Amino acid sequence: MPSTSSSPENTTPFHVPSAPGPSTPLTESYTYHSPTPTAPGPYILGVDEAGRGPVLGPLVYGVAYCPVAWKDELEELGFADSKTLTPEKRAELLGVLNADPVDLGWSVRVISPQAISSGMLKIPPTNLNKQSQDATVMLIREVLQRGIQLSEVYVDALGNTSTYEAYLSSVFPGINFTVATKADSKFKIVGAASVAAKVTRDACIEGWCFEEIDGDDQYSDPKGFGREFGSGYPSDPKTKAWIEGSLEPTFGFPSVARFSWTTVKVVLEKSAYPTKWVDEGQDSLVMAFSSSKGRDKDRNLVARDLCLRSVGML
Known about the structure:
- With 314 residues, the protein is α/β, with parallel strands linked by helices.
- The protein has helices spanning 71-75, 87-99, 113-121, 128-145, 161-171, 183-186, 188-206, 237-245, 262-271, 280-288, 301-305, and strands spanning 4-7, 10-15, 30-33, 43-50, 59-67, 105-111, 150-156, 176-180.
- Strands 3-6-5-4-7-8 form a six-stranded mixed beta sheet, with helices on both faces. Strands 1-2 form a two-stranded antiparallel ribbon.
- The longest helix has 19 residues, at 188-206.
- The protein is globular, with a radius of gyration of 25 Å.
- The N and C termini lie far apart (62 Å).
- 33% of the residues are buried.
């Protein structure tokens, strides 16, 4: 799904193949894979994410991989924790990832805001750690299915490092896993995954297509949503201003917002119209099994109407 994007600090558009197209709303989660490298294995692979904490936009998991024999070349390419790099440098490094299809491969799993929210709000909930874990397993599995032989995998920490390392080792026996905090600054292959995830998320946010607005009206913004998202983190003043200014009191927020975040819940409770859901069928069912009064006290209506005094009569 091709895209052209630019960041606030960098006004030069660049191609982000892993982001939705310019008129494509991000309504469902999806996976993007670069061309499969052809160099002989075994390979090392790194895993990192972008967008875990923000209240707006998708969570993106990225992987990057190269042959073990290519480690020395990888060390010279400049990959690092994407948060320490300028937008221009991240764009340059995404180009590096695409420039050597023989030795370098990368993939991302883009988890939509709707998927994050529906997972966390359903009963029983699927928390963000589980959604992150599932995305990681999916990406590794799909890389293996593409014929890549993995010998070492490096993962940025998610929860307890030893527990997560043991879990991944049990899912993929025969692969040596290393789960570490700040892995994106310790292992260049994780830094490469960090760049893939970060550039993809930034492109998703900067080119966000509101499904609530007809395509031709995206930038005239007739509903007044605005595009000053800021970083998406709840503490960012620009993000706070967007949340406060983009609430539609009847229908809530557009789908770029994560409804499972406390930040959004508080604004909805404070400023949105209250809603009461009425299910007459459910009310009737509750009444049928409620206790009677008087001589029939402690007998529900169903038992009374069937003249039942004990379960032994059934």
